[in-house]
Specification:
With 333 residues, this protein is mainly alpha-helical. It is built from 14 helices and no strands. Helix content is 82%, strand content 0%.
Length: 333
């Protein structure tokens, strides 16, 4: 009897020890994960010992720049690409990415021409055209699709975070904090991307920039209407006065209602948007995979005049189809 009681007590002790160890590990892991999730990129860079000016320079490295000397159409395209690169949080500038894509295009094109000549398919007009399309798809179209997907994901995250940031901002104002202190609170409590963005605002104001001007630059970088509403409200309140906390609370409600309607529209149009993405990306990915695994499938008949005309027609029809699909799924709320 004494031996059985001893065994039971030992088993209970082992169970309690394992339970306590598991609870301690789980609690520490959850606390560490929560802390890491709350710390944004700017705070991590500052905690690593980097200078504030260096941090600001790195965070705004890819911000869109004014190029008034360029023609209007080219300037708009470059500005849109710069905004996409900035939103995607890629550690390279738009100019560097353009250089990489240009070099990649040249390398892939030359390698494809050499392979076509070595394989016996020749280096005729058809082979050059197919290799050209392959190089464009690998070095330009696919990277652009990836960058656009990353930028869209971070923009959606920013839109979801912004009403929460306004709520924290309103609570800070009602607690008696000034605007600068409320912004500083957002930099410590919010995750990326909005935490680092408001951190930039805090640093720029600390270095002497105008608050409204810094906020307008943030709204221009992201191109979100919610941010523009916030900036306009602060600008009007600074000139006319009024209860800023109440104004921002109403704006947060409007933004949430607008976002709710937007999500309903996205849900109703999800099939069309997914079809658009599939019809845009699937032909390019399929062509790249087939050309990579079996290039003779395209190179052998490439010198046939019918094949050349058909390929050119397909490329033109694809471009027209992508444009029409983009116009159809570009819903404004």
């Amino acid at each position: 009897m004494t031996v059985e009681i001893t065994r039971i007590l030992i088993m209970l002790a082992v169970f309690a020890a394992v339970f306590l160890i598991a609870q301690t590990i789980a609690t520490n892991y959850a606390a560490t994960r929560s802390y890491r999730g709350a710390v944004n990129k700017r705070l991590r860079m500052i905690s690593s010992g980097e200078n504030r000016e260096v941090v600001v320079g790195k965070l705004i490295k890819n911000r869109p720049r004014d190029r008034a000397e360029l023609p209007e159409g080219i300037e708009a395209r470059i500005a849109q690409f710069e905004k996409t690169v900035f939103a995607a949080a890629i550690p390279f500038s738009a100019g560097q990415i353009m250089v990489f894509m240009a070099l990649g295009f040249v390398v892939v094109f030359l390698v494809g021409i050499l392979f076509s000549a070595a394989s016996g398919a020749g280096v005729g007009i058809g082979a050059i055209f197919m290799v050209l399309i392959f190089a464009l798809a690998v070095a330009i179209f696919i990277p652009l699709l990836i960058i656009s997907a990353l930028a869209r994901s971070r923009r959606n995250r920013m839109e979801k975070q912004f009403p929460v940031a306004l709520d924290i901002f309103v609570r800070a104002l009602r607690s008696g904090h000034p605007i600068s202190s409320a912004i500083d609170l957002l930099t410590k409590e919010m995750e990326d991307p909005i935490g680092s963005e408001f951190g930039l605002i805090s640093d720029e104001v600390a270095y002497g920039a105008d608050l409204i001007g810094a906020l307008e630059q943030m709204a221009d970088r992201w191109g979100l209407e919610d941010m523009r509403m916030f900036v306009v409200s602060l600008s009007v309140q600074s000139q006319t006065g009024g209860n800023l906390a109440e104004i921002l609370e109403n704006i947060a409600k409007v933004i949430r209602d607008r976002h709710q309607m937007f999500m309903k529209v996205r849900a109703l149009s999800s099939e069309g948007r997914m079809t658009g993405w599939m019809l845009t990306g699937l032909p390019i990915v399929t062509f790249v995979m087939i050309f990579s695994m079996a290039p003779q499938y395209y190179l052998d008949p490439s010198e046939d005049p019918i094949f050349i005309y058909s390929a050119i027609t397909l490329v033109v029809m694809y471009c027209i189809g992508v444009y029409v699909i983009r116009r159809l799924i570009d819903l404004k709320v």
